[in-house]
């Protein structure tokens, strides 16, 4: 697991918490920030997954 995968998962989790807090308090801005954090986390995790896949492929060669 590389740092992009870890950071992506952390950002996704942080976004879920922030969105839930926004839901509970009725704070739309916090909800939107939470969703944005989740998207960013998913993208970063995907980049990390791609890096890991390329690394494994190169190692097989």
Automatic annotation (TrEMBL):
Residue span(s) of domain CsbD-like: 4-56
Compositional bias ranges of the Basic and acidic residues kind: 1-21, 46-61
Matching Gene3D superfamilies: YjbJ (1.10.1470.10)
InterPro entries per UniProt: CsbD (IPR008462), UPF0337_stress_rsp (IPR050423), YjbJ_sf (IPR036629)
Region annotation Disordered: where it falls in the sequence: 1-61
SUPFAM superfamilies: Hypothetical protein YjbJ
Taxonomy, superkingdom: Bacteria
Record-stated family: Belongs to the UPF0337 (CsbD) family.
PANTHER family: UPF0337 PROTEIN YJBJ (PTHR34977)
Name recorded for this polypeptide: CsbD family protein
Organism name: Azohydromonas caseinilytica
Lineage: Bacteria, Pseudomonadati, Pseudomonadota, Betaproteobacteria, Burkholderiales
């Amino acid at each position: 697991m590389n740092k992009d995968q870890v950071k992506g998962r952390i950002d996704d989790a942080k976004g879920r918490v922030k969105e839930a807090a926004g839901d509970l308090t009725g704070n739309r801005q916090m909800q939107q920030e939470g969703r944005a954090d989740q998207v960013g986390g998913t993208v970063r995790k995907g980049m990390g997954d791609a890096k890991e896949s390329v690394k494994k492929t190169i190692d097989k060669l």
